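Holo model, fe (ii) ion. Inputs:
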Amino acid sequence: MSTTGKILSDYRRHVGDFETVDFVDEDAIGALRQRLDVDVPLDLHWTWEYGSEVEELRNLYERGKKGQWNAETDIDWSTPLPRDEWFMPQKGALLMPSLLLDAGVDEATCREAAWDEFSHLISQLLHGEQAALQLCGQLTNACPTMDAKFYAGSQVIDEVRHVEVLSKFLQRKMGVLHPIDPTLKVLLDMLLAAPTWKMKTLGMQCLFEGMAVGIFDQIAKATTNPLLRDIIRRVQIDESRHAAFGILSMRQVVKESTQAEMEEMEDFAFSILEALNANQQLDMLRRHGPKYGLDPESVVGIMLSLPEWPVINSEVFMHTVVPNLKRLGLITERTEPQWRRLGMIHGDRFEPVEVQ
Ligand SMILES: [Fe+2]
Ligand SMILES: [Fe+2]
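Output:
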């Protein structure tokens, strides 16, 4: 498998036949995290058309206004998240506790691993929310229609609320905030620095919002903690509106695109998600695995060798992002075999999430 032209080609390694993205150099990771100022191109676009031109977008904006909630006062923050109780299934939902339980490790240690892994996941979602906030701010400048500016403006406050609610959850209930994973930092910077509003919308609104909807849904279905479930459900309702914004905007973009532009977007979507998939949780495992005697590469090797790996791995992709890209014509016969080969598409379930 060639590494030419791939994102993060310097960090590619192999576990068996599978090509991973794996950061092992702490200095490189530190340098990425210290990169706080990012130079992003931004085309500011005025419009004098204040009436609604895209009715579906204006309706979505109305839904957004009605769907506002207050992260401080609408959440019952007195609900506990006890550290000595399971709040996610012991097996199947999180990687480290599942492996440790199978290995006969005592339950208290497995719960501790679940705590580390889950707080790591929520920390990454929080950093992603900050990126969404910044990107959405860019979209208010760059989008061509007033409807899109209205919607992007309303999404800005949604993303502020998500940053607020997840950071408060980590601070008040988990007592820890993990730094951003290097792979995620690189990919988010790429989306934030995408040159046009079309690419920014595709990257953030379709790819990352779509992934977020899948991850939030998995957590909401799995958790037994009422506080966590309430927070995730609320965020999820907002996120599905955001994903709908992405689809509505992209539907228009696709209509106006040439074949060459379509192929460019198709390749961009694939390369971003391919790099994310190539990490296979190695960033998390490098940080937390050694504490539990887990060797990151061995864990990935075990996972990749499971017969059900394509089903497990493709779940989050197949939830929203793949059906939406398929529907937009951004996964075609040209690229679909690669998605399948890398375990990002499995089976034939392509029913898209309905945009209302
Ligand atoms: Fe969000
Ligand atoms: Fe969002």
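The pocket of fe (ii) ion (ligand 1) is lined by residues 129, 132, 159, 162, 239 (CB under 6 Å). Strands lie at 12-15, 18-21.
Archived with the compound record.
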